[in-house]
Amino acid sequence: MPFFNFKSGQFNIKTIAIALGILFVNIFLFVLIFASDGVGQYIFRTISFILVATLCAAFVQVIYLCTHEHERLIALGNDLANAQAKLSHIEESWDRLIAIVAIELRTPLQVIRGYSSMIISGNFGSLGDEARRMVQTIGELSEKISGATEELISTSTQAKNEIISAKDGIQYSHLGSFWSRKTAFLNILVLSAILLLIVQFFLATSTTVLFMLMLSTAGFIFLCFYVINEVRHEPESEGSIALLETSLGGISKQIETASEQKNLLVTRITTNIREPISTIMSLSTRLAEDSFGETTQETKEAAGKIFEASDRFSTTISSIVQILNA
């Protein structure tokens, strides 16, 4: 229960007031011990002082724990909010990736597969052996890319669903009775101390003693109500911290998993998509140029369409890789 908050540079007025209240209550009760008229009253007041002093020390400890754990809860809450923001960003990136793959990759890929199939079928005229082998290679590579593209969509969709499940699994702290669960025994001690102080009213031998007893009792009762009011609105700290730490750990693990998934996808894209599409672009360029004189003009134009679609496909793949590396 610090008196000065070094972060804000301000004094904690409530803490100072509580400390002064505890100090005065204990001073009054300690002085009353020496104002006792007999051994019995001396023992009675000593027991009252020890009990009240012990309870005041417990109050200080409880308030300190509440403050410390409240700060811990706030820190965990901030960390959880930041992790959630990262998780939402990852989810958005998967959404973008799925949309791009589903539309901007499938469309040019259909063009490549369609034109290569039509060329092989002889729709644009006859082909020489070398040209036929090149178109067959383009067709085979486009089928390989098609499978890799569908796998990319499937993996991205699964990764997105895992993110959604992780967000749905976040558990927040719940409010409970910190006082009733953690300090139930103190209730009995508080009532006992108040009862002892009230009994002393009837044993007071002078107005001064009675006045000091009244101040001590009133101050102690005020402290009791203040502490109870403060802690009963606090969350069940241990349970709340455990829930937040569990949620934060789950989100952090999911973020790490998502990062690994992205790195794996980049590797797969390079091997299963980028390299084959580069080969298709190279073959379609050679076919369009017809350096070996085995193709018709229509075939050259179809090969040009394949190159344009491959180039568009390659540009889209670069955008996908940028999203995965972000």
Features:
rod-shaped; two-stranded antiparallel ribbon; mainly alpha; single chain; 8 helices; 326 residues; disordered N terminus
Whole-number count of domains: 1
Q: How many angstroms separate the termini?
A: 44 Å
Overall geometry comes to rod-shaped
Strand/helix succession: EEHHHHHHHH
The chain-level structural class is mainly alpha
pLDDT < 50 runs, ≥5 residues: 1-11, 173-181
Biggest sheet descriptor: 2 strands, antiparallel
What Rg, in angstroms, do the CA atoms define? 39 Å
Number of DSSP E strands: 2
User: What number is the mean pLDDT?
Assistant: 76
Q: Walk across the major sheet and give the strand order.
A: 1-2
Query: Which range best describes the helical content: under 10%, 10-25%, 25-40%, 40-55%, 55-70% or over 70%?
Result: over 70%
Alpha plus pi helix count: 8
DSSP strand content: under 5%
Describe the structure.
The chain is mainly alpha-helical and 326 residues long. The protein is built from 8 helices and 2 strands. The longest helix has 82 residues, at 39-120.
